[in-house]
Write a structure and sequence with these properties.
The chain is mostly helical. The protein has one domain (16-125, 161-271). Helices cover 66% and strands 3% of the residues. The chain contains nine helices and two strands; from the N terminus they run H-H-H-H-H-H-H-H-H-E-E. Strand 1 (260-263) and strand 2 (268-271) form a beta hairpin.
């Protein structure tokens, strides 16, 4: 039996039409992302359709909330899903950067490429856990004090995510600047993915800023109790972020199979291209310096 809080948990009556629209567009994006993953066979990119499907799951309970805004379970479900789901997209951004860094010589990256993905994914998982705990505590609390405590915890999680994203954006910008200043072979096909990733991550950064401000106000704040803010600063921004990857899918550009190699002359690591994706030209592998020929 669904628990009735006895008051409107949303602070408004969820708009049926707007929530159906967001549900449908995320469902369409899910289908496209899944087909793209199957086509390019890069299974780690299932994070994208799983994330967009979770967005769909976040808007379904709001339809119930339209008729029964006092029911606690649908409110908790929608709040938790919509708050933590972008962490899945963050994991994709971080992984894309980590893999792109390994395609080119070490001189282009501020830190060693092998450290990029593990560090940022760890930050992402930490923010996911903190946000989930905070959102669940706030949604199931029976007092204003407990709700504010949960809001604070969730805000810390969003803050961790935002800090990680800003650091990611700085490293990515430096990486991009260095590559544009001294273009290496094989850059042309990666340039499109670089721009797409910067745009997609930029939308999530803006969304995280909104969520941080919202949670800073608390669950009784004006932002949290104003529905159009959710659609404009969360739903639309997240949709833009995932749609960018529908248009420029990472699976089309990143090597499908790889092996780690170390080149002492380049002081870096790159992916050995064994990609079966339909590329106009494969990424350039930086060859080992040829051994000197001994004169007889």
């Amino acid at each position: 039996m669904l628990q009735d809080a006895g008051f409107n948990l949303y602070g408004y009556v969820p708009n049926m039409a707007a929530n159906i629209i967001m549900l449908v567009v995320f469902a369409l994006s899910t289908i496209v992302h899944f087909l793209q993953v199957v086509r390019y066979r890069q299974w780690w990119l299932l994070l994208l359709p799983v994330g967009t499907l979770a967005e769909v799951g976040g808007y379904i309970p709001r339809l119930k909330g339209h008729y029964h805004p006092t029911l606690r379970d649908p409110y908790v479900a929608t709040m938790c899903l919509l708050i933590i789901t972008p962490c899945l997209f963050a994991a994709v951004h971080f992984t894309v950067l980590g893999r792109m860094c390994t395609l080119f010589p070490r001189k282009y990256t501020l830190v060693r490429p092998v450290l990029v993905m593990p560090f940022f994914v760890t930050v992402d998982v930490a923010s996911l856990v903190i946000q989930g705990v905070g959102a669940a505590n706030a949604g199931t609390s029976d007092s204003a004090e407990a709700a504010e405590s949960g809001s604070t915890i969730a805000a810390v999680g969003v803050g961790v995510q935002l800090a990680g994203y800003l650091l990611f954006f700085v490293l990515f910008s430096i990486f991009y600047y260095r590559i544009r200043r001294d273009p290496p072979p094989g850059l042309s096909q990666m340039h499109t993915l670089m721009i797409a990733t910067m745009i997609s991550s930029g939308w999530i950064i803006l969304r995280s800023i909104y969520r941080l401000i919202e949670m800073g106000e608390g669950w009784d704040g004006v932002i949290n109790n104003t529905e159009w803010c959710l659609f404009v600063f969360d739903a639309v921004l997240v949709f833009f972020a995932v749609t960018v990857y529908n248009i420029v899918h990472p699976g089309k550009y990143l090597p499908k199979k790889f092996s780690w190699n170390y080149n002492p002359d380049k002081d870096g690591i790159w992916w050995e291209n064994k990609n079966e994706n339909e590329l106009e030209s494969p990424p350039v592998a930086y060859p080992e310096k040829p051994l000197p020929v001994k004169e007889v």
